[in-house]
Amino acid sequence: MRVRALAKINLGLDVLRKREDGYHEVRMVMQTIQMYDVINLYKTSRPGIWLRTNLPYIPTDERNLVYKAAELLMREFHIRGGLRIDLQKFIPVSAGLAGGSSDAAATLVAVNRMFHLHLSKKELMKRGLSIGADVPYCVMRGTALAEGIGEKLTPLPPAPGCFVLVGKPAVNVSTKQAYESLHLEKIARHPDIHSLVQGIQAQDLAAMIPHMENVFEPGITREDPVIGQIRELMLEKGALHAMMSGSGPTVFGLFDSWAAIQRAANALRESQMARTVFATRFFNNKGKR
Ligand code: ATP
Question: 109 C-alpha to center of ligand 1: Å?
């Protein structure tokens, strides 16, 4: 079986507070984009999980979220036999694009289908949460408001369609590190996620744009100024808006035409500020998986 694991960007991201258990309470607008990893799964008669990937620096054992997802369902349903899994990564790693979480979600969906487990989307989302806070959203996909630690999901109408330019600089930011350098008590103004959601509900991109903000962006940009430089370049080249996704360092820009996005993509490649430059669109599954 072959499945695609789609990346997400955050149209808005706020961190509200640190809970007593150490997790942070967030309010974010998630949007799936058409940038994806490909996962091929093959049944084997020999029990066990054999994972291979095209990137030498990510683990292929139980530390990989694909492995965790497959193991979770195989254990619970006492699946005899094994799985050989080939993970082709195209989504940049540690980039704020939820690549690992999406791989886990796609693996849950694939194993459910391959072994006829008949779990509903909701049941897969529940199991996904034990792997990571963003996994339930990655099972759901589309445009959504995520609250709690990211697991309380409210589906939103598809955000107004536009073209998305993804630029990932060579620097890596771990999510843990990003939270550690976020000093909530010092943040004077938080993104207005409520108004952003209203803009989406009104299907009004112009009303959304002033509220498309990421609470991590000022701090991470101070540490890695290239993030701000990529953002400025996208704006100069005609982006309607540009900002950082997740805990960074990926920057994305929204454009209203394919010609404009191609010009910006070429300029970004020439600048050599981004290691990955990718032009794509939003993905809206309209309820289908
Ligand atoms: P998020 O947007 O959820 O913060 P991210 O883009 O920061 O995600 P990922 O690329 O999902 O980060 O994962 C980064 C870390 O997870 C790396 O340390 C990597 O070794 C580990 N990892 C485990 N499984 C995977 C996977 N399938 N793909 C990528 N990284 C994985």
Answer: 19
